[in-house]
Known about the structure:
It contains 2 helices and 11 strands, in the order H-H-E-E-E-E-E-E-E-E-E-E-E. By secondary structure, the chain is mainly beta. Strands 1, 4, 5, 7, 8 and 10 form a 6-stranded antiparallel sheet that branches. Strands 2-3-11-6-9 form a 5-stranded antiparallel sheet, with no helix packed on it. A hairpin with a 4-residue loop joins strand 7 (about 110-115) and strand 8 (about 120-125). The longest helix has 17 residues, at about 1-20. It is globular, with a radius of gyration of 23 Å. The N and C termini lie far apart (about 90 Å). Mean pLDDT is about 80; it is low at about 5-20 and about 20-30.
Amino acid sequence: MILFYFLIAMFFAGPARAQLNDIQKAGHLALDNIVYNPGAENGLAGWTASGGTFTVDTLNGVSHGTASFRWNSSAAAQTLKSKFSNLPQGMDGKNIVFGCAIKVPGGTATHTISLYNGTTNVGTTTITSGTTWSRTMVNTIAQTGGSYQISITSVAADEPEIAIDDCFIADASLVNLSQVNQATLVGSITITGCSSVL
Length: 198
């Protein structure tokens, strides 16, 4: 009888484990994303704005899932940062990629996006500004024992409001790099009696 109940439990529990809710799906993005709450499905948890108005939007469209962040900075040099996430040890010294999907409902945004390692911003670039969702992605090399957070910074004092969704930090080979070759000097040759070769 116990075996019967065990088999019934296994039959019904298997499909349930295979299904993910929207919050879990947003965290995975099919690329082993290490950013906590990458798309506001868990409210504002894990994100901090140094100024301006920072909210969750569930009504005006999202890139994926059921929510997105909205940030309207009120001065230049304000930041919106995710909480620090540790890279897996296997990523030390390897190519990583980070970014977010961003939409600017009105105006032209000049914000920058960086990967902050606790000391400096790495891989800083200007976000793609447009009225439709566009992913801004940057590749960089992971430091040994790296802990990172995504940092979005307002450049102008009157930046427009931006919508943010699907933020990620991940192994670049899973996202946009399939193979990177580096030239290496294997050896050299000197021919006696020759002064130069054209």
